[in-house]
Amino acid sequence: MNYQPAADTDAPKNGSSDLSLEISGITKSYGGKYPALKGVSLQAHDKEFLALLGPSGSGKTTLLRVLAGLEQPDAGEVRFGGEDFLSLPVRRRRVGMVFQHYALFRHMTVAQNIAFGLTVRPRSERPSKSEIADRVADLLSLVQLEDLGKRYPAQLSGGQRQRVALARALAIEPRMLLLDEPFGALDAQVRRELRRWLRDLHDRAGVTTVFVTHDQEEALDLADRVAIMKDGQLIQLGTPNEVYENPADPFVYDFLGAACRLPGTVDGGRLTVADWESKAPKGAQQGPVEVFFRPDEVVFGPLDGAGLGADVRAVAQRGPDVRIECVIEGRVFELEAHGPTLPSGVAPGLSLRVKPLRPRVYPLQPA
Amino acid sequence: MTAAADVPVKATRLPGMAVALVLASAVVMAVLVLLPLFIVFHDAFAKGVQAYAAAIREPDALAAIRLTLLVAAIAVPLNAVFGVAAAWCIAKFEFRGKSVLLTLIDLPFSISPVVSGLVWVLLFGAQGWFGTWLIDHDIKIIFATTGLVLATILVTFPFVARELIPLMQDQGADEEAAALTLGAGGFTTFWKITIPNIKWALLYGVLLCNARAMGEFGAVSVVSGHIRGQTTTLPLHVEVLYNDYDFVGAFAAASLLASLGLVTLVLKTALEWRHSGELSAGRRH
Question: Which ipTM was obtained for this model?
Fold first, then answer.
């Protein structure tokens, strides 16, 4: 478990702080018609764990494949550790890539899969057979699959395959680790276990890691910073906390969690939403706005208090949480409350007031 | 109550139907397949083993066997290479005209083999497009081995490609991409990843291709010219002898082709039985 990929590489060990990833103006379209990336620029620090988060079709996987060298962008630049990365062919980039469906070599055993990157090296750089065997054994124990070296991929569970794919990628002592939906094909239980384990592995291996996901919870939980993408563009880049607390636009707000939205107006520092008036959030634009709030960031109060008038339609207890379905301004909302914040007497058929704790306002989007 | 009583009656009746159907198909099989096969061997040995052996050792017969093997030995490897290349292009890359290429690969299946032979005559025959030029340069294609090989290649082109395309499409290009990121070159990736993944399907395609190459009659008949001992392959040899009322000779040669068919069938079944997963495209690991 004392695995240190950078220890015996020929990469310069000192000055590793410039080993950062700079992506600038990457543009890529398929067949000249379907734009996949429209001028994406972002940087990753050395040893950073960066998540590319976005819905399907946002271009995140294409960007990852550009980094791996499996796609050539139409325009733009990628520098890694100061080096022009795009001019390097795939095999010289030394990136460890874990594919969404793992892409294990089905006709090779687990051990042969892991050893592949070492056995295909030119004779002069190739470790001896016993060295390779030792490395494979180390990696197998790193991914906790010591006894499965002789198995074939088809004989493994999804979680085991994922770990083999990771061990295979780590075997080449990668300078950068790229993970495409690493947990996409796993069930929820395995996914949560592997998530922590992967983060731990990243911290120990000390390799810059970029991973693609469409699962906001995964990105927020795992990454140092999250890059949120949409329609081939980078919408926002920041730490999980930054993006969650200050979503750049309605899309990001919506994508990072459940959202309730209502039209409102900002006028002279006051925000008016239906029959509720409050202080406008800092920096809010004047005029008609869209108001967003999280369904669990609300306070319920009696009708004579402040807040949005709401008619409760249904209340359902789900463990420690309560779901309150209510109608505000003619729209149905599913609000959430935790036991203590729920005023006694909330029941279907009653009217009360709902006060969003941290409303966010965005300029009204042209429809 | 009546409904409940109906069920067992139906249940007993169904196997009866099934047995009848199985019997019927067995009879059809026997009449259409086994009987002709039996007749081939029966007539081949009608005048005894000596006559059979003599018919096969006859110089024209030996020449036909040699020519058949030669044509297959050239056509099958070429089609294996073409097939792998075509399947590789179609399965692993996106390009314009892909569907046109797919249709072209299927073309030999949909046109009559006679036409596949005739196109070569129209191109390289004495009256063909390049006929005069070829005569001027003393190059013989039609009524020569080259023509036989060309006709055979055209007719048997789809076998390998057709077998590989669905499999390779299903496998996708991820394993190759993975090999590249791990530092393998294109050549290494092809030999260590692509070929091992398709080897059984490739063998299967080659087997079918070979059976057809050796058994092809229509296309080679057009370009052969039926020069005994020179341009007659085994199937043509059978026809020539049969037309000469040399039934033992014809059926002796036919028995060789039938044996080839049986061997192919056994190998094919063995492949399907042992490696069905790697032949069909349905498997995902």
Answer: 0.81
